[in-house]
């Protein structure tokens, strides 16, 4: 009967969001949670965090991910430049090596 639990969890979240939008709650300074009837947090099948806490955690996670994404983009561009120059260097060495082999094999008469 997992479907019933999921529906109940969704219904509780919707009810809590509606009650949060209806009016501001006073925050207790000791616990950091809204003071009220004690029914402010509930547990779903996957965890026990309240939607407000999950939302703040998710936004913090997304902003950290965006910072990492910018860093990854910079590192990707830097890596692309390093690989390009290394391949250019290897190709140059191969070209000079072929030229030297040709000159040693056939001499300067063929030029």
Structural class: mainly alpha
As an assembly, this protein is: single chain
Strand content: under 5%
Low-confidence runs (pLDDT<50, min 5 residues)? Answer: 27-33, 35-42
Strand count, sense and barrel status of the largest sheet are:
none
> What is the helical fraction, as a range of percent?
55-70%
Alpha-carbon distance between the termini? 86 Å
Q: What letter string, H or E per element, gives the SSE order?
A: HH
Number of helices: 2
Write down the overall mean pLDDT: 75
Q: What is the CA-atom radius of gyration, in angstroms? A: 32 Å
How many β-strands, per DSSP? 0
Categorize the overall geometry. Answer: rod-shaped
Biased composition (Low complexity): 21-38
Region (Disordered): 13-54
Structure description:
It is a single chain. Helix content is 69%, strand content 0%. It has 111 residues and is mainly alpha-helical. It has a domain at 66-111. It is rod-shaped, with a radius of gyration of 32 Å.
Which characteristics define this entry?
111 residues, mainly alpha, 2 helices
SSE inventory with pairings:
Blueprint (H helix, E strand, L loop, with lengths): L1 H21 L28 H56 L5
Brief summary:
With 111 residues, this protein is an all-alpha fold. 69% of the residues lie in helices and 0% in strands.
């Amino acid at each position: 009967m997992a479907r019933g639990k999921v529906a109940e969890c969704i219904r509780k979240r919707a009810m809590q969001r509606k009650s949060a939008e209806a009016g501001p709650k006073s925050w207790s300074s000791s616990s950091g949670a809204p003071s009220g009837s004690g029914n402010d947090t509930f547990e779903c099948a996957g965890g026990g965090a309240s939607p407000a806490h999950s939302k703040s955690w998710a936004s913090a996670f997304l902003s950290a991910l965006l910072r990492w994404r910018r860093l990854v983009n910079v590192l990707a561009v830097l890596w692309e430049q390093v690989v390009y120059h290394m391949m250019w260097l290897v190709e140059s060495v191969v070209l000079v090596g072929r030229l030297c082999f040709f000159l040693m094999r056939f001499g300067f008469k063929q030029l």
